[in-house]
Amino acid sequence: xxxxxxxxxYTGAALLALGSCKDLDTKPYVGEVSELxxxxxxxxxxxxxxxxxxxxVSGIKPKDxxxxxxxxxxxxxxxxxxxxxxxxxxxxEAIVGWGDPGLPDLHKMSWTASNQWSSAFYSRILYQATVAxxxxxxxxxxxxxxxxxxxxxxxxxxxxxxxxIRALVYSHGIDLFGSIPLVTxxxxxxxxxxxxxxxxxxxxxLESELKAxxxxxxxxxxxxxxxxxxxxxxxxxxxxxxxxxVYTGQAKYSEAAVYAKKVIDAGFVLSADYQHNFLADNxxxxxxxxxxxxxxxxxxxxxxxxxxxHASIGGTMNPTDFGVDGGWGGFRTTKELVxxxxxxxxxxxxxxxxxxxxxxxxxxxxxDGYAVTKWxxxxxxxxxxxxxxxxxxxxxxxxxxxxHLMYAEAVVRGGAGDGALALxxxxxxxxxxxxxxxxxxxxxxxxxxxxxxxxxxxHRRTDLIRFGxxxxxxxxxxxxxxxxxxxxxxxxxxxxxxxxxxxxxxxLKQNQGY
Length: 514
Hints:
The chain has 514 residues and is mostly helical. It has helices at residues 2-15, 34-39, 43-53, 79-88, 104-108, 116-137, 141-146, 153-176, 199-213, 230-242, 244-248, 253-264, 304-310, 335-339, 400-412, 419-433, 443-454, 460-466, 499-504, and strands at residues 59-61, 65-67, 95-96, 288-292, 331-332, 351-352, 371-372, 395-399. It is built from 19 helices and eight strands. α3 (43-53) packs parallel to α8 (153-176), α4 (79-88) crosses α6 (116-137) and α15 packs antiparallel against α16.
């Protein structure tokens, strides 16, 4: 997929410059060239690229220029960047010292419906769905026939991939916002204000859509790197089922185990070295199931892993060791995450402590809190990525290790499955890390193991909610805005719908507490 980005990303983006995303029924504006674009079958892959590019970059020009969402700064609206912020900063895994408007509120867990970060991500979800819907409307059998284009296997795959990306972003919507507008290609453009779906309705839609895609996406490991296949759909379903009790009140752990096992049996392989999954050439990893691709020259953005890597460097750290040209002195972690690594042999404890204080007395001081060295713009051979400012490192939304842990958790929670296999799968991760094997699995040691294996990969908020430890029952440094941490309101398990969208669509109902 990185090679495809060279010919697709900004070309594809230029073909499909959208208007406002606040109305999911708003038809994307492509000007007078629309019919010309869709008359050429070669353009379809480029337009599909816009969907993938929307997960990585925030505009149709390099360095976040000519942005998709006109009401947000380009560097602060990138899908991956803001998703990571919302999943990590309200948890024990990450804290940020910057004072950008709305950013300190994420770790304090004091955000409002006007928070620019949650609002930007809410808008990003709707934007991605809008692009997918328009692509699907323009590639029906009827539209293709009218243009004299045969519905080839390639176009059928493109449609399945567009549906998957739409399902993926809606899966983030159900998790972070709960009840949001749901519009598909079947809805007539401009006919009515988008209707808000309940969380249960969203769950049913996603379950149905992802099961259908099982039969329509390419087989696991047969699509180009960075493009969706059946394994990506299985992972999304496994996560949906694992969190079903949170979303709908009905547990579906047996189903979660089934779909996690499908991924485990699909031929993916754990990387021999854990950190190889987080380097500039991690596209060679056979463990990665579905990444968001970045290329230092072709997908230049101030978000993505460019932010993740630069912002993690400060104090006495040497940016050269990370393959970049400087540090931004922002992101660190709390002592609670560090404490998970009581086994000193565990190679996943990728922290920088020289000149850093374990205690965080001042959030704005970079040297308060250990730094994290997990993500780098350096290749396995030690050489930097092709660009020292914008990184090559891909961000994996799904990798095999998570399937191991999901299967184990689903079984421990009572889902049908093999308990002995569950323990073996978890211990495979610990063996790779050099840590001692576990002799039994419990919910407590599984949550801790997810922290050790998956920290800073965008999972922690969802995990803490599922384990009942997000708002109450477990506190960490500066949770709730106090050094020792404190419980916060139960409604914080959901972010608010963007206040601007409630103005644009008065039929929407805001989440409780906002």
